[in-house]
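To make the argument concrete, we let one protein speak, a sequence paired with a row of structure tokens, as a model reads it:
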Amino acid sequence: MQQVSRLLFRQGIKGRADAWYIRVDRSVKQDWDLLKNACLTGFALPEENQFASIARMEELYDATIQGRDEKITSYLERADDFHAQYGPQKPYFGWKVVSGLTDQQKSSIIIFHMRREKTIDYPSARQMIVDAYAGANNPF
């Protein structure tokens, strides 16, 4: 398994990682655990302070609108990623996602149902969106 992991790792690296790999000691290249740890250490992202993290979250939140040519499936994938990372911090995220739909008719109908059912959470909103797009050309 270690040999397969090392081979797959080597085949998949490009650019800066390839230049880094060339400089790695041979003994590290021969040991998957050492290689993996060296890579994770060498390419670790710097710790983000709390204020930068909040600013990044707010920027992503504000950008939660469906692009003009963006498929509904892609839009919901972006929303899923945001919700997985920040969901508890944004309880109104479902409302934001529905409001960001390009199809205003579907958006209005879903918002009507959200108000009636008194639900604004993302999982409920996501299911309503999926239901609204059900039919002959169901993208899901």
